[in-house]
Amino acid sequence: MSAESFSPRQRSRSPGAVEGAHQRTADFRVGKRIFATLGYPDDAWGMVKLTPEQQSMLVEAEPEIFRPVPGGWGKQGYTNVLLAKADATTLKSALAMAWKNVAPKSQ
Predict the structure, then answer these.
(1) Can the peptide bond before residue 41 be classed as cis, meaning omega within 30 degrees of 0?
(2) Domain map of the chain by residue range?
(3) Closest by alpha carbon to 5, among 34, 46, 66?
(4) pLDDT-derived band of residue 5, with 50, 70 and 90 as boundaries?
(5) Do the Cβ atoms of 59 and 79 come closer than 8 Å?
(6) Which candidate among 5, 9, 69, 107 keeps its CA 20 to 30 Å from the CA of 26?
(7) In this model, does residue 88 exceed pLDDT 90?
(8) Which CATH architecture has domain 3-102?
(9) What is the structure's pLDDT at 10?
(10) H/E stretch holding 37
(11) Given a cut of 80, is residue 95 above it in pLDDT?
(12) Alpha helices in 2-80 (DSSP H)
């Protein structure tokens, strides 16, 4: 997958998602809540905001694609995605989970 493919508007059904920037990286938000970013820790990676349970499931199933973000953020479920290794279905699923975690419950 390329960085362009990571965009939730292209890869996931993410109503209300907008692209912005956070600490010099592209981010994707619902309202003011970030659910995904590009370029962290470098251009080869993205990040999705998962629950710790979702993170554990994905890291265990696809350790060559997913890894916890180092430090305290990773313990909260923030998960790096190696874009070059992720296929469209896997990436779409991870983005959908991340979007659902932060989207208003009425969506």
Answers:
(1) yes
(2) 3-102
(3) 46
(4) low
(5) yes
(6) 107
(7) no
(8) Alpha-Beta Complex (3.90)
(9) 47
(10) strand 33-38
(11) yes
(12) 3-6, 8-11, 52-61, 72-75
